[in-house]
């Protein structure tokens, strides 16, 4: 850690750590909802998304063609087929762990942890939290534990880590080129 920026780095790290905590709190809160409440919430979100697709995407002939291609792709590749609600729920798992991994990775980068350390620690934090979240969810009325949810959560974290590592490598490469050309 550079001596002159230590205060700012710690302040930024605390900010990203707080955001990580807020994401973890929201994950815990959502998994603490009973089965009926959780199902109702996801059904509402699914209906809003379906409405948006119909009003925005399917309002033109080109949009209708794109919509049909997207639906065909989802039906072909999703293990849940055309079940919008399950697809939305799994996308939510992926997305929230993507966000959690992003905040953890950035926090570790600000603290000066090396790339390999960031990757391992971020995936470990997200993986362990996903496992404990599913264990917690198994104790909630109307909810079940699902190993596929842990896999989807881990894939979200892994995708985030891959993207951020590539960005970090590109940044390092350009920093090396720019600093190397000054000598």
From TrEMBL:
Domain VanZ-like stretches: 18-166
Keywords tagged on the record: Membrane, Transmembrane, Transmembrane helix
Transmembrane domains' residue ranges: 91-112, 119-135, 155-178
Record-linked InterPro entries: VanZ-like (IPR006976)
Taxonomic source organism: Faecalitalea cylindroides
Statement: the UniProt record of this protein carries the keyword Nuclease: no
Descriptive protein name: Acetobutylicum phosphotransbutyrylase
